[in-house]
Amino acid sequence: MARRRRRNSIWKNIRASMRTAFAGFASRAPRRKKRGPARGAQQGEPRARRQAGIPWGGLALALCLVASVAFFMYSLKAPDSRVTVTLKEDDLITTYRVQPRSVDGFLRETGITLREGDILSQDKQAELAEGMEIVITRAYPVAVKSNGTAHVLHLTSGTVGDALRRANVSYTAGDELSELPFENLEPGMEITHTAVDIAYAVRYKTLEYDEIVIKDDKQYEDYKKVEVVGANGEKQITQRITVKDGVEVSREVVDQTITSPAVDKVTRIGTKIKYQTNYVGETRRWREAPVDGENGWKKMVVDKITAYCTGTRTATGTKPALGTIAVNPYYITYRTEIYVKGYGFGVARDTGAFRNYKNSRGEPMNQLDLWFNTEKEARRWGTKYNVTIWVKKR
Fold first, then answer.
1. Which tens digit of pLDDT belongs to each residue from 225-248?
2. Residues 203, 215: contact at Cβ < 8 Å?
3. pLDDT at residue 48 above 70?
4. Which of 79, 67, 32 is nearest to 52 (CA)?
5. Domains of the chain, CATH where assigned
6. 360, 372 in Cβ contact below 8 A?
7. How many of the other CB atoms lie within 10 Å of CB of 265?
8. Which run of H or E residues covers position 348?
């Protein structure tokens, strides 16, 4: 049976290496020159008894070599205390081989800074362990604007609704949002919230009645009768007022209800022509008698009123007809409008011989002479004394 070869121990190997190194150094060291006997030395003393010098430099080099070899051999045999750590930041994955320490110390050593909103998967005070995975989720800015105020948030995920809650912005179904609440957040997203308030205002409007005129050809023109008295109505109007961020932006009518309808006024009037008189050749339409003091009309008492039907030309150059009245220009000037009850309206266009007569008081005669188309009608009128008339100067 073959004998197993015994291995030399590590220390024997180190001692052999030191001997070899020292012997090589000693063989390369320069030899001393021979000298005479030292002072005080006796002649004939043996050379072997002379003291030789110690090689200190070689000894130091040997010691350093021994220490290096010993540390190297210890390193080979001693266990490795470092741990493997994986760092994930966004899409970048890096593996580190480091000495155990806290997560916070590891981040400082690697120059990694956590910003506002960033999420760290491990506790900062936790100690690094073999195979530990540290994940940093970086936050991105999201702006939320509401009621004139802007909030900048740093978030890593979530929806628009989450960002609004983080900014303490409450909203209702009627408010306006630039993004839908369930949409996912994106880096740099700007979310604008506009508070919308809806109010309703009620007002009332008067409905004025209309006047309906019924023309009746069986009644004369002076006929006028109110058959239905008019009355105003009322309408309720409802408006919707839209207010955005405290400012009114629109006002629109959403409902109109008639609370009480208007009642139209109904008036019946005659259309049958009514003339002032029934005299032959009458063309003057009927008019109400004037009132003293209104529209320039004044009362006057004349001495006498007569009638005539002869002549083809008046003193003012017109052709006589019903309504032509002869006057004394001393009292009534030509072209003055005159109203005589029973004869109607006329105009002073003529005169007669009576302008030269005197009355009982010795004054010029204040007389009227009315024109008729027939002698019969003139005679029927006859003569009337101290008659009240109305005059109006043009």
1. 999 999 999 999 999 999 999 899
2. no
3. no
4. 32
5. 83-137 (3.10.20.90), 140-194 (3.10.20), 200-268 (2.20.230.10), 298-392 (2.40.40.10)
6. no
7. 16
8. strand 344-350
Confidence tier at 321 by pLDDT (50, 70, 90): very high
Q: Whole-angstrom Cα distance, residue 286 to residue 273?
A: 8
Mean pLDDT over all residues of the chain?
A: 86
Helix (H, G, I), strand (E, B), or coil: what is residue 162? helix
> Binning pLDDT at 50, 70 and 90, where does residue 3 land?
very low
Report CA-CA distances (Å) from 284 to 257, 279, 290, 351, 394: 52, 10, 15, 22, 18
**Residues 299-312: tens digit of each pLDDT:** 999 999 999 999 99
Global pTM value: 0.46
Angstrom distance (rounded) from CA 166 to CA 374: 110
DSSP 328: -
Output the CA torsion 10→14→17→21 (10° steps).
170
Residue type, 226: V
Distance of CA 40 to the CA centre of its chain: 122
Distance of CA 194 to the CA centre of its chain: 9
Angle between helices 10-28 and 56-77 (to 10 degrees): 150
Residue found under tokens 């303490």: 168
Neighbours of 372 (CB within 10 A): 23
Q: Tokens 């019946």 sit at which residue?
A: 268
Instruction: Check residues 108 and 36 and name the one with the higher pLDDT.
Output: 108
E strand segments, 90-164: 92-98, 119-120, 132-137, 140-146, 149-155
